Amino acid sequence: MSDDSRSEDASAAPADSPSTTPPEAPGSASEILGAALGGAARRAGLDPAEGKSTGHVVWSAMGGWRGILESVLPSLAFVVLFTITKELVLSLGVSVGIAAVFTAVRLIQRQPVTAALGGLIATVAAAALSLWTGRAADNFLWGFVTNGVYGTAFLVSALVGWPLIGLAVGFLMGEGTAWRADRRKRRAFFWLSIAWAGLFAARLVVQLPLYFANDVTALGTLKLVMGLPLFAPLVAVTWLAVRALYPPAPK
């Protein structure tokens, strides 16, 4: 993960163009997307207006201990079991079973199930593909697709001057797309979005060769290493950069 949100070289030009863009009409695509992204960030506890500490925000973004376990255990169980037994059906069954248990517990406790349910669906889809092809490495194929989609979205949004980070923050801070008139904000949001694109690209660059080599153990291990351990610091950098752009009002 890149944590450089302060670079000011000429490559930031796409985000630093003069503010000649016509004002957005109410209900425009950018406002709708910004509202959706900002709403998701707020539900995840990433609202700069709340004034929470960086540690608290990063912990909330990861979902606390439960979110970490829901994210890590299914993949970890698959990698460990397949490495030891080479039994694809057993390894996939345990992985899907763990994800199902997490979802069931949330349902029983009447807690939000969006993240757990999404993880369960992804786990089941990946397992089904792996069973269909008979290749254990295909259990990670869905992750490549999502990383490619997210990375492309962050990169393209930055290059066209509408970085996703800016759209989300603009909604959270109640300024819509007005941040585009501020060169400092445009530059920061540009580089933050590039950093997120870099994270997703790095995962693909490192993990795809292992996928084609059918090295399941190394692939699964690096997927875990390049997951939350890299996600958390970039959340912290993003949070700190946004707080610097929107300092709390003096009391």
UniProtKB/TrEMBL annotation:
Signal peptide extent: none
The keyword Transmembrane is assigned to this record: yes
TM regions (residue ranges): 67-84, 90-108, 115-133, 153-176, 188-212, 224-246
Region called Disordered, residue ranges: 1-29
Keywords: Membrane, Transmembrane, Transmembrane helix
Low complexity bias spans: 10-19
Keyword Membrane: yes
InterPro entries cross-referenced by the UniProt entry: UCP010219
Tree of life domain: Bacteria
Pfam families, per the entry: DUF3159
Designated name of the protein: DUF3159 domain-containing protein
The organism's taxonomic lineage, starting at the top: Bacteria, Bacillati, Actinomycetota, Actinomycetes, Micrococcales
